[in-house]
Amino acid sequence: MTKLNAKIPQGDIADKWSNHKANIRLVSPNNRDKIDIIVVGTGLAGGSAAATLAELGYKVKAFCYQDSPRRAHSIAAQGGINAAKNYKGDNDSVYRLFYDTVKGGDYRSREANVHRLAEESRNIIDQCVMQGVPFARDYGGMLDNRSFGGVQVKRTFYAKGQTGQQLLLGAYSAMNRQINLGHITMYNRHEMLDLVVVDGKARGIIARNLVTGEIERHSAHAVVIASGGYGNVFFLSTNAMGSNATAAWKIHKRGATFANPCFVQIHPTCIPVHGTNQSKLTLMSESLRNSGRIWVPKKKEDAEAIREGRKKAADIPEEERDYYLERRYPAFGNLVPRDVASRGAKERCDAGFGIENNDTNEGVFLDFSTEIQKKGKEVAFSQGNHNPTPEEITKLGKAWVEEKYGNLFQMYQKITNENPYETPMKIYPAVHYTMGGIWVDYNLMSTIPGCYVAGEANFSDHGANRLGASALMQGLADGYFVLPYTMADYLADDIRTGPISTSTPEFEQAEQEVKDRINSLINNKGTKSVDHFHKRLGLIMWNKVGMARNAQGLQEAIHEIAELREEFHRDVYVPGSADEFNPELEKAGRVADFLELGQLMAMDALRRNESAGGHFREEYQTEEGEALRDDENFAHVSCWNYNGPDISKEEFFKEELEFNYIELKQRSYK
């Protein structure tokens, strides 16, 4: 059986990272321009890594499938980024952020990596402020913070509802400076389709120019994969429609271990599905749970009346509303972690209390009326009006909410044609983030030497559930403050290697395999579109590998996906040719990878006989319906090695998790 070496440094957890940095090898500044590094993906993780590595003097080749790095999906993150600055004086600390993250992930993450993340969180804010990121500030000019789910402190820095966009623009600006200096060569509209391994080391990639269709060889001394997560395996998700798993899946098939594929996050505050022709879902920021209260009617007949349009939310009096998260989890209320909030919404809707008029009656209210009244009174009082009228309170409260969340409210209204200042938002859980990904050691290197994986593409920091505002934190920590140090230790051996030639049998073979795969899709004489198969895969995944899972459904999913995969390769139709701009060909390759990964996700979920975080097995729950872990048998990372085209034959093994600084115990947010 394969054994993994996570290379976790010795010593106290508070000293591991600093001691490790002090003892790893360096590459002299004069030698760095002798080394090429490929970065695949230019979101927050890839963009920050490319900019920082180039600033250090390495020659960086950056690849993105979008027309600009500014279009990376990181731009869609709305709510904020966590950092243990304790600016609010509410007793926050590095240890508290570390503890909250491990607990929020239901004790299925690696302690050392999470503590490093908490440490570096503080540097991220300083870095981004110096870049000019316009974080929100309070009345006195200090950086403001707000709360997010799963914590009892205010540690989330934000820029209205555009935090991801502003942080990405900071990284993009840093990249542009290095592009201008000639340190970064940017390859827009290029998609990585394979990894090239030479003498056991990652030495380059095969990429397709998405505009011309040309297949290209690119070499380097090391490769960084920062291509995001695989949520679009479900077809409907909050991810950008182009988000895909191809880069990660291709390195898996070249020898990189995949870890915890079944750990998928369902976000509780998304606009509900409204029809069968919908192509993606829209996330409403978790920051809204700071101010909104989630409820459904207490009476089923009221819920039915709302669904049928006979009643509106305003017709349900306060005493007839079930604020179910506040009722079940008084200590955290509406700010419980995402997996807990999502299951709560599903339970209420499954019980018949859903308020959205769609096929499944899925939807709950996110109501801002209480906050509007509360803040209206505060603002009036601060202005010297100690006896405001109800109209004045409402007007001032709405203005406060607009200043805080205005762009989010505007987005909701444009999509739904409902005014959230007047009537509650309708929300329901949807696929959002994937905690699983390529296995990496403490240095963020995969099991392929020289192949590093950063951000959502790796598995390392979030366990079975990600706390809100931690994705941006991990992406920037990996790119700005981890990879630039750890990669030097590996690259120190390459200062005399010289340029990596692309005229080798390994590059020739990899290129030919890519061309063969493309030709098999283009020349297939099928009758059904790529989306036809993707939607069918999505239904299987959502219904049987989604928010709630059971052994029978997972066994069925494994069988159904295997059959669907065979049908796809037999009957998919891809129009056009390979040597031109062809979005359908792009999608076909990505869906082919999703079909294989989806089967592995179901296999992993079936093997993990417990409930943990976003992985909820119906057979393993407490009497109160909470996730029931099995620490004796499943306190480990589930690891999978590719073992040929038959996904059912993937090799399974474990990385045992050790908890020396946090006590393993049942999560409670009550």
Q: What does the model show?
A:
It is a single chain. With 670 residues, the protein is an alpha+beta fold. The protein is built from 17 helices and 19 strands. It has helices spanning 16-23, 44-56, 94-104, 111-131, 163-180, 246-253, 300-307, 324-328, 338-353, 369-382, 390-416, 471-491, 505-522, 530-544, 551-571, 583-607, 631-634; strands at 36-40, 59-63, 81-82, 156-157, 184-187, 190-198, 201-209, 215-219, 222-225, 258-259, 264-270, 293-297, 321-322, 364-367, 425-434, 437-438, 451-453, 636-641, 651-656. The strands form five sheets. The chain has a five-stranded parallel β-sheet, sandwiched between helices. Strand 1 (36-40), helix 2 and strand 2 form a beta-alpha-beta unit. Helix 2 packs parallel to helix 12 (471-491), helix 10 crosses helix 11 (390-416) and helix 15 packs antiparallel against helix 16 (583-607). The longest helix is centred in the middle third of the chain and has 27 residues, at 390-416. The chain is globular and about 80 Å long.
What is the compact description of this entry?
By secondary structure, the protein is an alpha+beta fold.
Shape: globular
- The rounded Rg comes to 25 Å
- Biggest beta sheet attributes: 5 strands, parallel
How much helical structure, as a percent, in the residues? 25-40%
Estimate the strand proportion: 5-15%
Terminal-residue CA separation? 42 Å
How confident is the prediction overall: mean pLDDT? 96
Care to count the β-strands? 19
Q: Major sheet: order of its strands?
A: 5-2-1-9-17
Structural class: alpha+beta
Q: Low-confidence parts, pLDDT < 50 over ≥5 residues? A: none
Number of helices: 17
GO biological process, one term: anaerobic respiration
Pfam family, one: Succ_DH_flav_C
Main location: membrane
Organism: Profundicola chukchiensis
